[in-house]
Amino acid sequence: MPEFGAQMPKGPQGQKRPADAIGAAVMVAQIAVGETEDEKVSGRRRSGLAGASARAESLSQKRRTEIARHAAEKRWKP
């Protein structure tokens, strides 16, 4: 049984988490199906998407094709 004055558990980057096991399980399920977002993870994802679009704009169509062809060869190599 939790003690009075106990603090709420925190995630790896300091996110607030439910103190009880059922609440934590519900929160994890909601994050997994996209009903809610984890604050720190969604911020990093937005940053990554912004960086990816900036990189795509800076590369020529020919270079993007070369990169994609190289990745496909590595993926499907026997």
Description of the molecule:
The radius of gyration is 21 Å and the shape is elongated. The relative contact order is 0.07. It is built from three helices and no strands. It has helices at 21-33, 39-58, 61-76. 63% of the residues lie in helices and 0% in strands.
Number of DSSP strand runs = 0
Largest sheet: none
Number of helices: 3
- Percentage of helical residues? 55-70%
Unreliable segments of 5+ consecutive residues: none
Any idea what the shape is?
Answer: elongated
Query: What is the string of helix and strand elements?
Result: HHH
Q: Strand percentage, roughly?
A: under 5%
End-to-end separation? 56 Å
**What integer value in Å does the Rg equal?**
21 Å
Query: Residue-averaged pLDDT, rounded?
Result: 79
Structure class: mainly alpha
Give a quick summary of the entry.
By secondary structure, the protein is an all-alpha fold.
Helices, strands, pairings?
Elements: H1 21-33, H2 39-58, H3 61-76
List the main descriptive attributes of the protein structure presented here.
single chain, elongated, 78 residues, mainly alpha
